[in-house]
Amino acid sequence: MQQGSKTHLVPDRELGIEYYRFEGFMRPFARHFHPHYVFGLVEEGTRTMQCRGAVHELGREHVLLLNPGDYHGCDCGDVSLTYASLAIPADVMKVWTETSSASLPVFAPNVLRDADLSCCMRILFTAMECGEESLRKKELFGYLVCMAVDRYAGMCPKGDVAGREEIEWACRYLEEHFREHVLLDDLCAGARVSKSTLLRGFLRT
Q1: Which has the closest alpha carbon to 68: 86, 94, 90, 47?
Q2: Peptide bond into 28 cis (omega under 30)
Q3: What is the dihedral of CA 39, 157, 36, 3, to 10 degrees?
Q4: How far apart are CA 38 and CA 18, in angstroms?
């Protein structure tokens, strides 16, 4: 590790994922691949990245959505790089997207700009670093996965999306209980759908 650079790792056993933050890096990242999904965000700096045969010029606010087995790497940059990412095992992705191992989502493009995704990532990163309550992190992670899948997955989940009736019930419940601390579990139980199904329904509506 070069002088002045920092690496920070925060594992989350309840979510089953890991948060990494690489701060002030100048060295290259050799070509490699992961057995898990990677959701990444460039916070500062620039790099030239190769992924799946394509070349990408990375800059601030670029979001990376890497699939298991995606071969990628970065050349040495002229300025330092600060980059944060989530390592998401395929089994965790399967649970949150309600898919089978044979039909897990495949994300494309791998490098993009999306203000909603980057904002959600930043909030989730902070929640993980600060050790916020489990429910808060689950809600943020659920929204992040659902947005990414809904917008960029080439192989969409097979789970049914919540219909108008379920969404209307959830909206009525929120209106009637807006003074209370409403939990995602409460909405799912009342609408009789899973978390990811309800979240996808809200996003699409």
Answers
A1: 90
A2: no
A3: 0
A4: 10
Q: At what angle do helices 90-97 and 134-152 cross, to 10 degrees?
A: 80
Q: How far apart are CA 83 and CA 148, in angstroms?
A: 19
- SS3 state of residue 159: coil
Residue 95: which of 16, 160, 163 has the closest Cα? 16
DSSP-assigned beta bridge partners for residue 22: 7, 83
Would the CA dihedral through 156, 161, 167, 173 be positive or negative? negative
Neighbouring residues of 119: CB distance < 8 A, sequence distance ≥ 6: none
Contacting residues for 92 by C-beta, under 8 A, at least 6 apart: 15, 16, 17
Q: Which residues pair with 43 in a beta bridge?
A: none
Which pTM was predicted? Answer: 0.76
Task: Give residue-wise pLDDT tens across range 51-109.
Answer: 988 999 999 999 999 999 898 999 877 789 999 999 999 999 999 988 766 678 999 99
